[in-house]
Amino acid sequence: MAEQSLELVIEGMTCASCVARVERMATRLPGVHSASVSLPTERATISFDPAQVDSEQIIEAISKGGFKATVRRDQERSMPDSARELGSLWRDLWLAVALTIPLVAVAMGPMLLPGLDSAMQQVLAERSWLWVEWLLVTPVLLWAGRRFFARGAPALLRLHPEMNSLVMLGTSAAWLYSTTVLLWPELFPEQARGVYFEAVGVIITLVLVGRYFELKSRGQASQAIRRLLELQVPSARVIRQGREEEVEVKRLEPGDQVVVRPGERLPVDGRIIEGSSYIDESMVTGEPVPVARGVGDEVVGGTVNRSGSFTFAASRVGADTVLGQIVRMVEGAQASKPPIQSLVDRVAGWVVWAAIALAIGAALSWSLLGFGIDHALVVAAAVLLIACPCAMGLATPMAIMVGTGRGAEQGILFRRGAAFQASAGVNVVVMDKTGTLTVGRPVLTDIEPADGFMADDVLVQAAAVEGRSEHPLAEAIVAAAHARNLGVAEVADFAAVPGYGVQGKVDGEEIVVGARRFLNQLQIMVPRGLHERAAELAKQGRTPLFVAIGGRVAALLAVADPIKEGSKPAINALHSMGLRTVMLTGDDRETADAVARQIGITEVKADVLPADKEAVIGEMQSKGLRVAFVGDGINDAPALARADVGVAVGTGTDVAIEAGDVVIMAGDPRSMARGLSLARRTFRTIRQNLFWAFVYNITLMPVAAGVLYPLWGVLLSPMMAAAAMSLSSLLVVSNSLRLRRVELVR
């Protein structure tokens, strides 16, 4: 049975160790091939063999780990619906702040304000004020901080501790110690009778503050997806039985005739059957200028009708629309992981255990060295609080989340997270000429008949044969024949030879249309005059083709494919990034060099057959080069798959290009440069985040354990540890959000 993919929404994850645990619990099941879990999106993508395991068993296994796993519905989106959790956090945070402020004032006020101690003693005895502290802190710990117990305790009992477990252990240990001192002070020596109620309150409050802003920041990171979803309209006007009626979009079916008026957003994809308009397609292509669309043209759901009214026949509805495919593609990239993240997840899975072991070891060591139990408690609590691997868990997925969202806004779709890491190592960009650097809609510019032949007669027969071909050059010849109102002849025995040309029989006579190498292969001689003229046209950037009728050369045709406006700026941008650029084309050397000169490319590989493009990429890779290949995603599929990074150039409605790691919706060459630049910036951000996350844990865990105390008397308080833990996550999130403002190629 074929492998299936299951998408789950996972609730209850708080740090990288949770991610590692969910993946481990899923992959332990027989028949589960892989599991990829994303902390910011709260999603898991699991590949499994349905003959060995089913979705219910997978969900049950994850649920036993203390998480809530549910199958993601088709309409449900990747960014977690965190409004409820955010609201709950906000209420708990206000309670914690409201009680912690007077708690800190009571506990620390006498040390900060001279005379306050004696004034307080006149109101209540010192021991009574300690009970006031207890009354203030207990609701903070047990109610505002209940999430740490609800999630941390079960995880600890299952021997899979995580962030909540560490906070729970640190704060509850301090609270229990302080409460015991308050109830039975005689059990402790005089110097160990201090209480830490204010530390517990401040720690809970700081962790809640960090968690709240982290959740808010995650929401900002997913704004791009949210904006795409907001483009979906709830209803549409449909013509049924000759009448116009309004129906819900989810009830639309392919073939329905949909009416759109000026200023309205299109509900689904389709093809215009009546009327015309200018349509704002910026949400698909990233291009701000409205595009003229008329009868026969494709239109995309979510785009905006700027002027006239028109009617279109629905072709793709629901999740099959371009908008639906874009959202799925961006979600898939956000849920996938670059190779570097797998190592991070494995390390993070052990950080919590290392923290617990270090906390116990440090506490015992200080006790054996003769320090009091209060000193040991402070050290243990600080280690537990500072060691949370939250920053590790957010470092990669947050950057990918923001990077993919920013790309989607620009019409650049990243299909998988690995593209970010692969792009960072690319040092050469190979581009197919036709459709990538040129418009891809060639026009016939010249027709020069040989002696004894008439231009129109040759064009009729050439167009008849080329009419059976799908090559862009063939379309130019057929269009020229239609423009001259020439008739269409019948063709027999048609054959196309990729990279060479086409041949067939018209009125019983053999017709050949193709490149010089095709005629050479067929042993058809080209007159010297036409050969020299072909070389001249090639130097002007035109593609020369020969037409042979009955074994004799009948005419020289020249076809030109206009260079895209953005090609030269794109090449300049790639060069400014330190990248080599290579143009790949099936054209002859003279034509290829002429085009390359106009756009600034110095390396050209000409006369390359479609089947040989993959081999060219492989040859470069064998020399140690890391190659990005840019092509149309259909004819170039093998080369796109072979390249380290495949960039597929779409058409604005062609999203489902399977071979590319990156899809450029608008076909603008500048988007190619923008995409590579954004991918590199994103991976640079990932490395910065991971560097900070690892340095933070490696450096501060020993400091919290007290290694600096014998030398300089420096001891990290649990409150400072909690603040550092919260700030580390916020730093990673804030650094990732900078990608939303990064300058891209204009």
Automatic annotation (TrEMBL):
Listed under GO biological process in this entry are: copper ion export; copper ion homeostasis
GO terms (molecular function) for this protein are: ATP binding; ATP hydrolysis activity; copper ion binding; P-type divalent copper transporter activity
Question: Where does the chain cross the membrane?
Answer: 93-116, 128-145, 166-184, 196-213, 347-369, 375-396, 690-712, 718-737
- Write the record's keywords in alphabetical order, separated by commas: ATP-binding, Cell membrane, Membrane, Metal-binding, Nucleotide-binding, Translocase, Transmembrane, Transmembrane helix
Q: Has the keyword Transport been applied to this entry? A: no
**Topology term for the membrane:** Multi-pass membrane protein
Q: Answer whether the UniProt record assigns the keyword ATP-binding to this protein.
A: yes
Q: Which CDD domains match?
A: HMA (cd00371), P-type_ATPase_Cu-like (cd02094)
Pfam families in the record: E1-E2_ATPase, HMA, Hydrolase
Coiled coil (residue ranges): none
Q: Which GO terms describe its cellular component?
A: plasma membrane
Against PANTHER family, the record matches this protein to: ATP7, ISOFORM B, P-TYPE CU(+) TRANSPORTER
Q: Which family does it belong to?
A: Belongs to the cation transport ATPase (P-type) (TC 3.A.3) family. Type IB subfamily.
Q: Which NCBIfam families match?
A: ATPase-IB1_Cu (TIGR01511), ATPase-IB_hvy (TIGR01525), ATPase_P-type (TIGR01494)
The protein, known as: Lead
